[in-house]
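new request in #modeling-help
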Amino acid sequence: AQTVTQSQPEMSVQEAETVTLSCTYDTSESNYYLFWYKQPPSRQMILVIRQEAYKQQNATENRFSVNFQKAAKSFSLKISDSQLGDTAMYFCAFMRRGSQGNLIFGKGTKLSVKP
Amino acid sequence: DTAVSQTPKYLVTQMGNDKSIKCEQNLGHDTMYWYKQDSKKFLKIMFSYNNKELIINETVPNRFSPKSPDKAHLNLHINSLELGDSAVYFCASSQVRGDSPLHFGNGTRLTVT
């Protein structure tokens, strides 16, 4: 069975600084996808970024980028130039290819961006 | 132009009651899901429907029954509600393609008293 671990329950960062959220996963699968979802206080689940395991290049979406280390089974999220609106719970998620949307989530990291 | 909408947003009810949560998506997706987020914010899949057919049914009590009248709708019926059912329930949808990300609704906070 796959597991996803987020070792930082809470983090804080000053506005405009950079922060990295950690995620590790355990799987014996070779074809899978990894995601970061953001859940602000409004409760909505918002896709931040995704990574296909077969791609070596790290995914980037504006201020958000990942450091995907397949051998180490690590998938960290870097937020550059942090903004107050980045304050949220961040969930790392794993999905085996062909699992029809069965996302395995980590327990989340609560990020607070301070002015 | 909401992509995945679910109603109600909040639901407060007493133990033993039966309730339903409705979900609709206008993205033209083939697959819809129900996820449960517990009090510790942990998210876990409950059901997955593809073109009105159940394809994933995780270990949930059979008091929970999903109903899909068409591929744009997936409702969740809960019978004989218990205190432990209190949680946030998220509907989501995606294309059948393996790498298609899930689009979530805004969640329904269910409180059982």
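bot summary: The interface with chain B takes residues 33, 35, 37, 39, 42-47, 50, 52, 89, 91, 97-98, 100-103, 105, 107-108 of chain A (CB under 8 Å).
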